[in-house]
Amino acid sequence: MPKISLAIATYNEEGNISRCLESVKGLASEIVAVDGSSKDKTAEILARYGAKVSVSTNPLNFHINKNKAIDRCSGNWILQLDADEVVSPKLKEEILKAIRDRSINGYWIPRKNYFLGKFLKKGGQYPDYTLRLYRNGFGLLPGKSVHEQAVVKGKTSYLKNPLLHFPYPDFSHYFEHFSLYTAIYAQELAEDKTSINPKNIADYLLLKPIIWFFKTFIRHKGFYDGCHGFIFSFFSSLRYPVAFIKYWRLSNNENSRQN
After folding, report:
1. Domain residue ranges of the chain, discontinuous segments joined by +
2. End-to-end CA distance of the chain
3. What pTM did the predictor assign?
4. CATH homologous superfamily of domain 4-167?
5. DSSP β-ladder status, 77-81 and 139-140
6. How far is it, in rounded angstroms, from Cα 67 to Cα 164?
7. Which of 56, 16, 14 is nearest to 32 (CA)?
């Protein structure tokens, strides 16, 4: 049986990490973690589960630390998870069967996203396929965006059973993530040297959020999830204006320092 390494990057995840690691018992032969200098007991809990823990800085784009963990894995296969994700029992069984197929180098896994007390079924949130299982040496994260997928050399396929994702149990957790992701998005706009002109102002403050809301709530039938679907579509659409305003402020501060 090929061996599976769990690769994970963490930062202040003491409330989630045990549930994640419990779900991979009997699946992962090793746990490789890069912790971004957590202020809580995350590293201590990882060590309790026998994880190989390396402590690093906590970069804004946490995929940088994920790649460090991937590089240190020794198993034949790598399962890359977030601390707020759980491998369902049926998914565990399916993975153990799937890795015996020598013709496949990677697998897309459907993901169920928990939002304010409920798993969303529509709005593009299920099945939210993500490429998380791949042969060691055949997959890596580009490290350019928090929403990017792994790049895998060779043939990939799809699994049927879901990965359970618990990012937003309440508004507090949602706005914590929202603040982080919009800060990263603002940084990406800065790196791309996005122009601050009337067209882009109209695009990011009005057009993009409207299109996103229509796409998730209407086209992808987010209305089937009721008020949860509406709240998700509305607040997720706000990332465009919020990130652009953050970028605008960064640009103004940079210009002030230069002057």
Report:
1. 4-167, 170-258
2. 63
3. 0.90
4. Spore Coat Polysaccharide Biosynthesis Protein SpsA; Chain A (3.90.550.10)
5. unpaired
6. 22
7. 56
Q: List pLDDT tens digits, range 203-245.
A: 999 999 999 999 999 999 999 999 999 999 999 999 999 999 9
Return d(Cα 178, Cα 159) in angstroms, integer.
29
